[in-house]
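Study this protein:
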Amino acid sequence: MKPFKPNPIKKNWLKLTNNKKYQEYKHQKQHYKTISALNNYGSNEALTPEKIIALAGLNNGINFSHSGNSGDIIYALPVVKKIKELTNKPVNFYLELNVPMSLAFKNIHPLGNVMLNQKMADGLIPLLNAQSYIDKCDVLTDQKVHINLSSFRNSGILTDRGNIARWNFYTTGIIGDLGNPWLTAEIDKQYDDTIVIARSSRYNNPLVDYSFLSQYKNIAFVGVDSEYQEMKKIIPGIEFIPVTDFLHMARIIKSCKLFIGNQSFPYSIAEGLKARRLLEVFFAAPNVLPEGADGYDFLFQNHFESLVKSLV
């Protein structure tokens, strides 16, 4: 096969004269763009374990940065944990605020047009500081950054598929442990008989209906109030649990009888904790995967109902 070369004149001509060839051209162009971005990143920016270990030694530790989204931050932590184990050097984690977000048409996000704001950082910092492998978590101001864990966004990695938790494996060469917990939180026994739900407005699977959960006792919701109000229309008896920060949320999820979530931030906490968890898969962007004990996922309604029945 001949190497692809972009040709705007050819593209416009095919668009007018041959729709099949035009569609082929568009596919080839997208493939070319992806391969070019991946090749450029791999040649110039991708790290290796050897480089990271040397970097930690030269600087007596490593400063990481991340600009969010918050779920991406949680899924980046297995790499941070592994680097701490490999280097036994101080690890600092800095949150970069107010980086613009690009959303698909008609999608909405609780933070509007940025990936991470001060309010979300205030919620994340107690959770990250509670992890033994992080020496300090704070907002990024003028600190020197050694590894930017958001660089995958410029790497060419296709982020609507695969597994978010592996994105930083590809950019650093560090393979973290996804089968065991990478988050810790204390147990709160008041939630040990509660089914906890979190469902964001994004990544809703239109094939599933949560209303059957009304037959179960002790159903509660964590997340954004507007999302709770939508769930309350479906499950009238569901209660809302306000959280003070995301360490508090982690304690609730760790302690509950079953956590049910879609591909949103609270599920990333459940995955990091390896809580008993059930994931609603969004067929158009299946980029979250349960790994390890007590993780289950579903696409269809009958499996959803069957899994809940067996797990509670």
